[in-house]
Amino acid sequence: AARSPGYSGRHAPVGEREESPVSGRIWRRALVTGGAGFVGSHLCERLLEAGTDVVCLDNLCTGAYTNIAALERRPGFRFVRADATDTRAIRTLPGRFDLVLHLACPASPADYLRLPLETLDAGSTGTRNALERARADGARFLLTSTSEVYGDPLEHPQRETYWGNVNPVGPRSVYDESKRFAEALVTAHRAVHGTDTAIVRIFNTYGPRMRSGDGRAVPTFISQALAGAPLTVAGDGSQTRSLCYVDDTVDGLLALVASDETGPVNIGGEDEITMLELARRIVELTGSRSRIRFVGRPVDDPGRRRPDTRLARERLGWSPRVDWTEGLRHTVGWFARAAAA
Ligand code: NAD
Fold this sequence. Notes:
InterPro entries: Epimerase_deHydtase, NAD(P)-bd_dom_sf, UXS-like. By secondary structure, the chain is α/β, with parallel strands linked by helices.
């Protein structure tokens, strides 16, 4: 399968520009909001490797400077500590961008439950600010939306045409509705101002640089297994997720920006696994003696989740390439090294 049209990423020597065979556009300078987070830091790295200069704007509310510390030594990278909801901070960033990638938003349940109002602000004011900057600069804009817009889905697998099943006053609503509002904002901005926008709906992504305490299943299970503690599986562990390794997700994001598609486009893994299978596989991969402990299931936790990725395959030539055992092995290795450091 083709991989990231126009963006061979890590294989492109720094400093050389690649032209996209899809759109013929060349990205010289990108603004990445939320660039010090898990997905954002991998994205910044890939852009730099492909020869795009990067300004990473992040308030570090859930991200970490250590994620991008190594990038600061590279030419073409700049870190700005600021809030995406600060209109002036975004408007006055010097220079011109031809790509604005808006990732800034708390993303793990533990984070958005701790930061509910900030999460709504990131989706509303933060998205508006990033859109205005893209419009002012004539840049291509990407919103990283989420599979959570489908809520607890009544359709399976989820296609982009499905409208979702979200409880607007449930505990997860701050995140789900923030992203649904952000999608509406992006759509309106394109209609009113002709802004060159794209929306990606990312499904569960995992990999190095997730935080062990962020409450998501993969880092939680790996940290528990490495510590020899019981793996806490919610409910009876029969709920499913489809995991996507972060390199594949970043490929999908870059393939979408290199295309002329507006989205929304699903990007995610297609191998659906139960949380119990995931926990058992992590115990195996870590060689841990940990047991499984079943704990209460969070309110509104979706029962099943798997993307229909036909659109990404057909329009972007994208498909996930890293199988989950291989991806988990890399991730376990990273967590083990981080714990030992
Ligand atoms: P993350 O928490 O690691 O990264 C989010 C980053 O945004 C952090 O560095 C945080 O400090 C920053 N941030 C938050 N609010 C901000 C604000 N107001 N101003 C400036 N910076 C701010 O999460 P992630 O997993 O890397 O997610 C990145 C994006 O991808 C998010 O928009 C998220 O909704 C989306 N997404 C991620 C997944 C996934 O599985 N990781 C799935 C679906 C969607």
